[in-house]
Specification:
Blueprint (H helix, E strand, L loop, with lengths): L7 H12 L4 E3 H8 L4 H13 L8 H17 L9 H4 L2 E3 H21 L10 H21 L5 H18 L2 H22 L1
Helix pairs in contact: 1-2, 1-6, 3-4, 3-8, 4-7, 7-8, 7-9, 8-9
Length: 194
């Protein structure tokens, strides 16, 4: 049964507990724990993976781009339960690498959680959520290019994480920050490709 997350730290702790005592941890296992019915945890998960050291593994940014793209397109189509292909769900990594990345994210997560609160909620509801989904779709489409531009996938991960947190905490101010980060992502990719 999916857990209701109220903070970034609670999401990371839940993933860590779910992954314990397993040699390999599949995306399906993590998504089963976080829930496929909500756009915010899926977006947040992809953003965290991109922001963590895992983004340095070749193919991870493209894989997260596919996850975000499949999720956002289904959200824009009005689906309430997200479908993902088995090829994507079977992708896995060692429990040790996942736990290392989660430990690396814990301290920043606790700092971020102190700043989250419901505000400017019109920016994360209805039309605002649709705009966020459109922007996240654009980021997802750009992620394969970011594999060749150093650190751009990590910046994209910060933007996706901020959008996911904004939706989860109903924090419109954080959504504004995520819009600014998206502009930085676009600028870094364009500059990096020149």
């Amino acid at each position: 049964m999916p857990f209701e997350f109220s903070s970034l730290d609670s999401l990371l702790s839940h993933i860590s507990r779910t992954a314990r005592q397993r040699k390999r941890v599949s995306l399906e296992l993590v998504l089963r724990a976080t829930g496929r019915r909500s756009f915010a945890p899926l977006l947040l998960l992809a953003g965290l993976i991109l922001f963590s050291p895992l983004s340095g593994i070749p193919g991870v940014p493209s894989l997260m781009g596919i996850l975000v793209l499949l999720t956002t397109l289904q959200l824009l189509a009005g689906r309430r339960h997200f479908w993902l292909p088995q090829l994507l769900l079977r992708r896995s990594l060692s429990e040790e690498k996942l736990q290392r990345a989660l430990r690396w994210l814990q301290k920043p997560a606790r700092v971020i959680d102190r700043w989250l609160r419901p505000r400017l909620q019109f920016l994360v509801r209805r039309a605002g959520a649709v705009l966020i989904a459109i922007i996240c779709t654009a980021i997802a489409l750009a992620l394969p290019l970011m594999e060749v531009v150093p650190f751009s996938a990590s910046i994209a991960g910060v933007a996706l994480t901020a959008f996911g947190l904004a939706l989860m905490a109903h924090d419109g101010l954080l959504a504004i920050l995520a819009f600014a980060l998206t502009a930085l992502v676009i600028a870094s990719v364009v500059y990096g490709l020149w």
